[in-house]
Structure formats: structure tokens, C-alpha cells
Amino acid sequence: MTTAYIVDAVRSPVGRRGGALAHIHSADLGAHAIRALVDRSGIDPAAVDDVIMGCTDTIGSQAGNVARTAWLAAGLPEHVPGVTIDRQCGSSQQSVHFAAQAVMSGTNDLVVAGGLQNMSAIPISSAMVVGAEFGFTTPFAESEGWRARYGDQEVSQFRAAEMIAAHWDITREEMERFAYESHRRAIVATDEGRFAREIAPLAGLDADQGPRRDTSLEKMAALATLVDGGRITAAVASQISDASSAVLVASERAIAEHGLTPRARIHHLSVRAADPVWMLTAPIPATMHALERAGMSIDDIDLFEVNEAFASVVLAWMKETGADPAKVNVNGGGIALGHPIGATGTRLMTTLLHELERTGGRYGLQTMCEGGGVANVTIIERL
């Protein structure tokens, strides 16, 4: 089995909802990351075997296999195919897994893996709303098989975040301190230019719009909770955002034939699932499974990227895994930087790769909670 290498990784800046990227067509948003990846890597685009892009709510400008449309919108060769995948929040992390698996199996040599999401134009859960025209309003409530297995209980990311906070005894104050630190780290990273190499400016924007320099623990404490009597507020949840990102995955043969310089290799990839009603807990067993399969311990990892869907998710994950908080989301996370769902997986991987290079770390682990109670885990080794 051949090794899968990461040759390059790039992303757009992350635009705030209604911000600088809101009016960019989704295909053009994806095309931007793809074009930047091709230009930066110097690869002949005609040699690419496939384009795999993550995207959710694939209606409107994100419909019709937007991965293929984005490649063509970038002005690249027509003979190169593309496919759009939906693993909810982990869609573009899964695109890297599929790309690496294609390379490792010997069926592909060069694959573009990435993701895109314009959440300003296509609001979250838009695809679910469309079903109401036909009498089905959610993927769950009207399913006889689902109801027979899980009953009529509410299935909601907000409920899941609240359940996690209660189960792991995570207070609102703890979550607000975590959220504040996410903003602080993101601002430091921005000011120190840590993101400069990984961002391809777009629409006059060369930095992420999410980090709030004027936030404070006092402001967070004044917000109403998202659920009556709960602990979760908007301040401790990820931001609705617009962005794209892309990673070039290559085989040993492609590295040699095209004179490429690999920056990392895929050391491990896996995906596990847990209770879909709790929804956001799967990164815990998925991380344990990945480390066991890789023959590693939590202390072998130099940096972690754990998506900040909600502060409670990452705080519970750290409690269970014993990961050093100083190694987790060192440049901030989704609470500060935003969570453009389809693009987040490869945005995290792009940031992880660049930070490993900046700090001289060897291993980086990425995981994220995903709708349906699923979680991908990728461990990369910097070269």
C-alpha cells in the first residue's frame, strides 16, 4: 500500500455571515481555493485524477455537484471529474480521507480534496426545509424506523450541547472562559501573521472576519441562553460563516513524476460514530480508537485541532482524552474563526499543517463532531 502525502493546503479567509464573502457564488467560492491550490503547488491541473469537495445543504448555488462546477469555474481542464460529499460538519475532512484512500489503494495519484460553504446565501438546514413541501420536515421525526428506535425525542445540536455540558458538569462560566480564549488566541495568531501563508485573499479580504476584539467575559455573561434554563449561548457556539479550502493529496509516484515536495503524510485516518441524539460526543471514542489503531498515546501528539462547534464539545473531549489544553486549537477555533460547515474540515487541516511547520511539531491530530453522531479523525506527520 502506497503512502498518501499532503503536498499543499490553502484556504480562503473566513467571512462572517453577511460579510465580505456573502455575495460570492458558491461555485466561485470553491473555485478560489482550488485555483489557489493549483497555482501554489505548481501542479499541472490536467494530471489531477479527481476533485472531492465537501458541502452541506446542496441546494441553489450549492446544488448540481458543486465540486465539479467549482473546478470548471476555476477554468481548469474539463476531463477532470469532481464529486460533492456530505458528512455534515466533517464533509471536507472526509474528502481528505477519500482522497488518501484512493491514493493508498493505487487507483489515483493526484486528488484535490476540499470543501466550500456559503452559509450567508444558503442558511444552515435549508435542505431540510425544502422537504416540507412534500410533508417531511426533518430527517428524523417522520421516519417510522427512526421513531421505533429513538422515540419522539428532540434531535438538535443545541440540545446535544446542553446535554454534554450537564453530563460532564461544565459550567456556563467555564465555557465562556474557553470561548474568550478562542478569540484571544485567534487575534494573537492574526496579529503575528500565523495565518498569512495559508490564506489566499478574496474579495479584498485577507484575514478572517470572525475574531471579536471587543468581546469580554462581561459581554458574554449578559447574553441569553439558546435554550430556556440552559447554559449554552451564542458566545460559546461556532459562528455562521462563508469560506472554502483545499488540500492536494499525492502518491509516491506522483511526487516523483511531478517533482513535488511533500509537506506531510497521512499517518492515520478513521471514522467512528456514537449516539445520534447526543450527536456531538463521537470525537471522544473516535480519538481513542484512532490512537489505539495508530499505536500512539495522547502525549505523542504535538498539536490538536478539535472543531469548536460548541465549547462544551471540546471541554468534554479534553476531560475524557486528557489532552493538554495548551496543545488544543492553539490559534483559536470555530467560536472565533467561524465554522463554514463544508469547508471547515480542510480549513482545520490547512491550519494544522501550517502550525506544525511553524512550531516544528511532528504529529497533529484533527477531529470534529458531525451530524448523526459521527466523527472523523486524521493524524498527519509533518515532513
UniProtKB/TrEMBL annotation:
Residues 5-252 form the Thiolase N-terminal domain. It comes from Microbacterium capsulatum. It is an enzyme of class 2 (transferase). Belongs to the thiolase-like superfamily. Thiolase family. One of its GO terms (molecular function) is acetyl-CoA C-acetyltransferase activity. Residues 261-382 form the Thiolase C-terminal domain. InterPro entries: Thiolase, Thiolase-like, Thiolase_C, Thiolase_CS, Thiolase_N. The keyword Magnesium does not apply. Its EC number is 2.3.1.9. This is Acetyl-CoA C-acetyltransferase. Keywords: Acyltransferase, Transferase. Pfam families: Thiolase_C (PF02803), Thiolase_N (PF00108). The keyword Acyltransferase applies.
